[in-house]
Amino acid sequence: MKIICIGRNYADHIAELHNEVPSAPVIFLKPETALLQRGQPFFIPEFSQDIHHELELVLRVSKNGRHIDEPFAHTYFDAIGLGIDFTARDLQSELKKKGLPWELAKAFDGSAPISPTFKPVADFADLANINFRLDVNGETRQTGNSSLMLHPFAKIISFVSKYISLKMGDLIFTGTPAGVGPVKMGDQLTGYLEGEKLLELNVR
């Protein structure tokens, strides 16, 4: 399986990092070794002094496909969960200044925790109106709604599939809203999807 991530998909997050608004989805990948599952803790890597949390809605791909048209994109995922795109912000800034890829700052081991359960698509009344949030030590840091995406689910799936074939079991991180910030040892991160606690994570 592969982890496909969408960058710069919420205008307020783009503004907080002083980035340009992209005309097309920004794509990067994480390897399978980035996954954290079943409540495993996240260990801060020694190569960064500034790890940031980025909570995201995650789509679970349910069948193989390529060159998918937007009207049919909804048939290619069957469940939605939560994930955190941990980012070594200090390393990312250095790489961006040099015009280099972000992978070292985004794709390191353990950088992609996901919720142990995903909710079936049928459970959502409106895929364009999904609320989610992240609390850090009981304080809300990030709140988002899928209606605020610059590129909605169907556009993401259609765009990605023109370049990268989707396979059953792939995960698509769909972008993070504003409120990203640093984590430190001892932090407790809790993610909620439509008010339901879906993700709990300890930082060590």
Automatic annotation (TrEMBL):
Write down a Pfam family by its short name: FAA_hydrolase
Q: Cite the GO molecular-function annotations of the record.
A: hydrolase activity
Q: Which residues form the Fumarylacetoacetase-like C-terminal domain?
A: 2-190
The answer to keyword Disulfide bond applying to this record is no
Does the UniProt entry include the keyword Metal-binding? yes
Q: Which UniProt keywords apply?
A: Hydrolase, Metal-binding
Name assigned to this protein: Fumarylacetoacetate hydrolase family protein
Native source species:
Hymenobacter glaciei
Q: What is the lineage of its organism?
A: Bacteria, Pseudomonadati, Bacteroidota, Cytophagia, Cytophagales
